[in-house]
Design goal:
With 227 residues, the protein is of the alpha+beta class. The chain has 3 domains: 5-77, Alpha-Beta Complex (Aspartate Aminotransferase, domain 1); 84-173, Winged helix-like DNA-binding domain superfamily/Winged helix DNA-binding domain (Arc Repressor Mutant, subunit A); 178-226. Helix content is 46%, strand content 14%. It is built from 10 helices and 9 strands. Helix 5 crosses helix 6 (115-129). The longest helix has 16 residues, at 92-107. The N and C termini lie far apart (47 Å).
Length: 227
């Protein structure tokens, strides 16, 4: 499918940024397309772009940050296995430390990591293989590539893009990785039903589910007891 010039420019911006907040992207769309297209047309244009890049195994997808619920549009490769773009962007020594960071995030109860933990992991990796890394620079690189995100309290977590791109690696590495019972996406940070204990949900999914049911309080979609 041949894309129009405006669609090509829009696609190029997404390819360069790889992750953009929904409101930011809408503002860019309005600026680029002007009066030619309304925001209601953005989904149709993105669908046409996805058809154009399908043969490359690339995709534009709307996802939500599991920590904040904020919607993002991401551009990623469905063809990448294991570490996705991390394989291309980072050195073997950096990837070794990143694997430890991911392990720590997934194994935590909160899905977040502080900078002190990053430093401790870096020291552990140094003791194991003798490779000293600039952890501040590595974290900055992960943030700049939208693979990690940072909370207002300067805590680190997997971003919306990071979770999506690392999905093959997470599924292959962690046998007990869970899915949100409502959206079926991989979940690291979420809430667990205290009644049936094996139903874990994103906070934003639970909020939307409760709102749609017009319930006074949150109910578990699996056991139908109060969450």
């Amino acid at each position: 499918m041949a894309l129009r010039d405006q669609q090509k420019m829009f696609l190029q911006i997404l390819m360069n940024h790889r992750s953009m907040g929904e409101e930011e992207l809408k503002q860019f769309y309005k600026k680029l397309f002007g009066e030619d297209r309304s925001l209601e047309n953005m989904a149709d244009d993105i669908e046409e772009m996805n058809e154009a890049i399908h043969s490359l195994h690339h995709k534009i997808e709307k996802v939500r940050c599991e920590m904040t619920g904020r919607p993002f549009y991401i551009y990623y490769s469905k063809h990448d296995k294991n570490f996705g773009s991390i394989d291309k962007l980072f050195t073997p020594a950096e990837k070794n430390l990143i694997a430890h960071l991911i392990q720590e995030i997934v194994d935590s109860e909160t899905g977040i990591l502080d900078y002190d933990s990053v430093q401790r992991l870096s020291f552990k990796v140094l003791m194991n293989n003798g490779k000293q890394l600039d952890t501040v620079e590595l974290v900055k690189k992960l943030l700049d590539n939208h693979l990690l995100a940072r909370t207002d309290d300067e805590l680190l977590h997997l971003s919306a893009l990071g979770l999506k791109e690392l999905e093959p690696y997470l599924r292959a590495t962690f046998d007990d990785i869970q899915e949100c019972h409502l959206c079926n996406s991989i979940i690291v940070h979420g809430v667990t039903c205290q009644s049936c204990t094996d139903c874990k949900l994103h906070k934003h999914c639970l909020k939307d589910y409760t709102k749609n049911r017009r319930a006074q309080y949150a109910m578990c979609p699996k056991c139908d007891k109060e969450f």
